[in-house]
Write a structure and sequence with these properties.
Elements (H helix, E strand, L loop, with lengths): L8 H7 L26 H9 L12 H14 L3 E5 L2 H12 L4 E6 L4 H9 L6 E6 L4 H7 L4 E7 L11 H10 L3 E5 L4 H4 L9 E5 L13 E5 L2 H14 L5 H11 L2 H21 L3 E5 L9 H7 L6 E6 L2 H11 L4 E2 L9 E3 L11 H6 L6 E5 L5 H14 L1
Parallel strand pairs: 2-3, 2-4, 4-5, 5-6, 10-11
Antiparallel strand pairs: 1-7, 6-7, 8-9, 9-12, 11-12
Helix pairs in contact: 1-3, 3-10, 4-9, 6-7, 13-15
Bound molecules: ligand LCS.
């Protein structure tokens, strides 16, 4: 299908990057499960290695993976994308490309645990300094900027606090200081938020979550706005080798086709569940970007096309009361991850963010009583009845 730029989001989700196979007419993109590709002759091989179009070796590009990259690049409005073996491989691709001896990164304090942990525990070995701030106030980003700051790394909504960061304001601050802006858009998905249109230079996703959506693949992707940034990333990514397998790419391509349908359903369920929990006498607090009680409700309306499908809440009675909920629910599985077709519930302080030291966790708002629910696409009444039943047990 030509001229994707003029098509609607649902059409682009389904068709962008997809081509009917010229050899067979296959409508579904085939899985090119081949590690290497034959050249017509020596000159053709040399031309491919000089950078002319043509596949060489799957770590350096594969047609199935390319179909997925073109699809997501289109959805995010980027010039291109690089698929990675996991979301963390995507995060690390960006860090490795732009950070080095004598450089500094400013990052949102409440990011996915390992995105912070590798900066604090591993990157200092390479002479990289990091400062974590509550980026929901752009002034905190401004204050943390240094002459050697190369990246401003934002996660919005943040995992698991659901705090939002004003992308336009932070991009203006970062660019004034000569830094690139990276946004982890995993929680919103391209269906609800497009940071490249709001000043970001790079967007990344754990495609393990909403983009794939079926809890059966671990995958990541990085999307760049400008070709120079994409080519710099590509060089690092292909040679460090955290690339994607074609079968993995095909599964994600299969999953992304229903991204819009799933997001609509899951976020409608999340909105209703957030409103139910907020009114429940056993619930101490609820944080969900679609609730008017969210401190950045207005920013969410401006920056996102909906509140998303993840919420966090605390039960009166703290962690022990929260454990009663987590241990007794039947509809959501007690499991980390999010963005799948099914609901999941977890306790970030002891699970996804356990590696972040207590003081830093608390400073970032990841309180011990915080329970995170990734709301799925089940019959809403079943989810609510389940939570209602377990809250009565507290
Ligand atoms: N970025 C965000 C916002 C994430 O939530 C995750 C994983 C990653 C990056 C890393 O992606 P992965 O390598 O796992 O594909 N988040 C998880 C979570 O909250 N529970 O389990 C994994």
């Amino acid at each position: 299908m030509k001229d994707m730029g003029k098509r609607g989001l649902m059409t682009r989700i389904i068709h962008a990057g997809q081509h009917t196979d010229p050899g067979t007419g296959a409508v579904s993109t085939p899985i090119y499960q081949s590690s290497t590709f034959a050249f017509r002759d020596a000159d053709h091989g040399a031309a491919c290695f000089r950078g002319e179009p043509g596949y060489k070796y799957t770590r350096l590009g594969n047609p199935t993976t390319a179909a997925l990259e073109d699809n997501i690049a289109n959805l995010e409005g980027g010039c291109g994308a690089l698929a990675a073996a996991s979301g963390m491989a995507a995060v690390n691709m960006v860090y490795l490309t732009f950070l080095g001896q004598g450089t500094h990164i400013v990052a949102t304090d409440a990011v996915y645990g390992p995105s912070r942990m590798i900066l604090e525990n591993e990157y200092p070995r390479f002479g990289v300094a990091s400062t974590f701030v509550d980026s929901s106030d752009p002034q905190n980003v401004a204050k943390a900027m240094r002459p050697d700051t190369k990246l401003v790394y934002l996660e919005t909504p943040a995992n698991p606090t659901l705090k939002l960061t004003d992308l336009e304001a932070c991009a203006a601050i970062a660019h004034k200081g000569g830094a690139l802006v990276v946004v982890d858009n995993t929680f919103a998905s391209p269906y609800l938020q497009n940071p490249l249109q709001q000043g970001a230079d790079i967007v990344l996703h754990s495609m393990t979550k909403f983009i794939n959506g079926h809890t059966d693949v671990v995958a990541g992707i990085v999307i760049a706005k400008e070709p120079a940034v994409l080519e710099r990333l590509r060089k690092v990514h292909y040679n460090f080798g955290g690339t994607m397998d074609p079968h993995q790419a095909w599964l994600v391509l299969r999953g992304v086709k229903t991204l819009g349908l799933r997001m609509e359903r899951a976020q409608a369920n999340a909105m209703k569940l957030a409103a139910f929990l907020e009114k429940h006498p056993k619930v101490a607090w609820v944080r969900y970007p679609g609730l008017e009680s969210h401190p950045q409700y207005e920013l969410g309306k401006r920056q996102m096309r909906g509140g998303g499908a993840v919420l966090s809440f605390g039960v009166k009675g703290g962690l022990e009361a929260g454990k009663v909920v987590i241990n007794n629910v039947e509809v959501p599985a007690l499991a980390v991850s999010l963005g799948g077709i099914e609901s999941l519930i977890e306790h970030p302080a002891s699970m996804t963010h356990a590696g972040v030291p207590l003081a830093e966790r608390q400073a970032a708002g990841i309180s011990d009583d915080l329970v995170r629910v990734a709301v799925g696409c089940e019959t809403y009444e079943d989810i609510e009845a389940d939570l209602k039943r377990v809250l009565e047990m507290v």
